[in-house]
C-alpha cells in the first residue's frame, strides 16, 4: 500500500502541489496499478515459446520519387537563391 507521504513526495518530485482530495485519489489509483503489477509478477511464462518478427522491417514501405509536373519552387514562401529554405539548426559546431 502506498502512503500519503509517498504520494506527496512524488508530487514534490514532479513539482505538483497536490490537494488532500488529489492525494486520496492518486493513492487509490496507484494502489490499483500496483495490484495489476502483482498479478503480472505472478504469471509463469516458462511454458510459452518465444515469438519472433515475421515481417522484415526494411520493406514496410517503398519510397518512390514522384514528379509534381511543374516547378513548385515559385509557389513556396520559404525560398532563397533557388532553394527551399529550412529552419536553422540548434546544433552548435
Structure at a glance:
It is built from two helices and two strands. The protein is mainly α.
Low-confidence stretches: none
Range of helix content: 25-40%
Number of strands: 2
CATH architecture of the domain at 4-41: Orthogonal Bundle
Task: Return the CATH topology of the domain at 4-41.
Answer: Histone, subunit A
Distance between the termini: 51 Å
Shape descriptor: flat
The H/E string reads HHEE
Based on CA atoms alone, the radius of gyration comes out at: 27 Å
Give the structural class: mainly alpha
Per CATH, the class of the domain at 4-41 reads Mainly Alpha
Q: Could you characterize the architecture of this molecule?
A:
This protein is mainly alpha-helical and 93 residues long. The protein has a domain at 4-41: Histone, subunit A. The protein has helices spanning 4-13, 20-41; strands at 79-80, 83-84. The protein has a two-stranded antiparallel sheet with strand order 1-2. The model has no long low-confidence stretch (mean pLDDT 84).
Task: List the defining traits of the structure above.
single chain; mainly alpha; Histone, subunit A; two-stranded antiparallel ribbon; 2 strands; 34% helix; 4% strand
SSE blueprint and pairings:
Blueprint (H helix, E strand, L loop, with lengths): L3 H10 L6 H22 L37 E2 L2 E2 L9
Amino acid at each position: 500500500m502506498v502512503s500519503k507521504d509517498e504520494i506527496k513526495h512524488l508530487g514534490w518530485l514532479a513539482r505538483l502541489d497536490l490537494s488532500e482530495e488529489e492525494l486520496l485519489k492518486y493513492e487509490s489509483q496507484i494502489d490499483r496499478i500496483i495490484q495489476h503489477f502483482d498479478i503480472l509478477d505472478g504469471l509463469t511464462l516458462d511454458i510459452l515459446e518465444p515469438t519472433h518478427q515475421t515481417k522484415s522491417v526494411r520493406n514496410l514501405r517503398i519510397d518512390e520519387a514522384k514528379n509534381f509536373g511543374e516547378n513548385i519552387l515559385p509557389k513556396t514562401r520559404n525560398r532563397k537563391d533557388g532553394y527551399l529554405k529550412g529552419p536553422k539548426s540548434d546544433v552548435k559546431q
